[in-house]
Design goal:
This protein is α/β, with parallel strands linked by helices and 294 residues long. The protein is 41% helix and 15% strand.
Length: 294
């Protein structure tokens, strides 16, 4: 390894409510190829994998499976949740009870996704795997929101507390940061800049239900902690690196805008993500498409 040289790669997090889709697998394959290329150049590559235990969809699935297991009438026709789980996800009948509780379901599919990655050897760094039920991650998220509060970036709205994306100084600094990022083609750059400008303070980061980190009894919306993964990775005790490159699908444009906002507020410039690689930048009928939607 080049003396003291380490290279940090980020990959779009895993949301473990189902097995891997082809598009998610492709993201990991491309990122892993790049990671191995950097290893041939003598770098020690750090490529954290995170399973995001958040969102409301998991509760919806668990409720449907619970009704099915109790023998209650529920939709089992093609394309229903139960049909997809049994016939598309190939979950054995004996394992259906594991999908009745949110954390149990998340653990089930997170293990499946992790095991599949390892079986296929599509990752060079399994040591840095974690899920967001990790206590350190919860503490970290709370510290970040305290930081937002001290910076005056939290406002009250009729829907709950929100980040003040209307703050002109914050917005202008975020756009300046976007201009310094490499790897974004001109067309996509304009789209992300539009997303940065479109974000407003009406999007509350608080939810009453779902899975995720709680602050003052309210759950943090998954779109307000997932973009902090890379900051968490860079702050973890065993390495302190900027994100050299981040791999993701193009439909996460809103997420990228929020990620750049977060890094601009929280991290010094030399610790911010330097480059983005988007999978799925084709065109159909004049419209851009994403790998997972095209």
């Amino acid at each position: 390894m080049i003396q003291g040289k380490r290279y940090s790669i980020g990959v779009a997090y895993m949301h473990p409510i189902c097995p891997f889709s082809l598009s998610h697998a492709r993201i990991f394959i491309i990122a892993d190829t790049w990671a191995r290329f950097k290893q041939t150049q003598g770098y020690g590559v750090v490529m954290p994998i995170a399973s995001h235990y958040g969102g409301r969809e998991v509760i919806k699935i668990c409720d449907e499976v619970s009704r099915y297991m109790k023998g209650e009438k529920c939709e089992v026709s093609k394309d229903s949740i139960i049909w997809i789980i049994k016939n598309y996800y190939n979950v054995p009948e004996k394992d259906m009870k594991k999908l009745c509780k949110p954390i149990s379901l998340l653990n089930y599919f997170a293990k499946q996704q992790y095991d599949n990655l390892k079986k296929l050897k599509v990752c060079c760094d399994f040591d840095n795997y974690y899920n967001t039920k990790n206590k350190k991650f919860e503490i970290f998220i709370k510290k970040i929101f305290n930081k937002y509060k001290k910076l005056g970036l939290i406002v009250n709205t009729p829907k709950g507390r929100a980040l003040n994306y209307n703050d002109k100084k914050w917005r202008n600094e975020t756009i300046k940061q976007l201009k310094k990022i490499k790897g974004i083609d001109k067309g996509l750059y304009k789209v992300i800049e539009e997303k940065i400008i479109e974000l407003d303070r009406g999007w509350s980061f608080e939810r009453k239900d779902g899975i995720g980190v709680k602050i003052e009894g309210k759950i943090i919306d998954p779109m307000f902690d997932s973009e902090l993964f890379c900051i968490f990775d860079s702050k973890r005790s065993h390495f302190d690196l900027p994100q050299d490159i981040f791999f993701l699908e193009e439909h996460l444009k809103n997420w990228v805008a929020k990620k750049i906002y977060a890094e601009t507020a929280i991290l010094p410039e030399n610790k911010r993500t330097k480059k983005y690689f988007f999978l799925g930048m084709g065109m159909i009928n004049g419209k851009r498409i994403s790998a997972s939607r095209g």
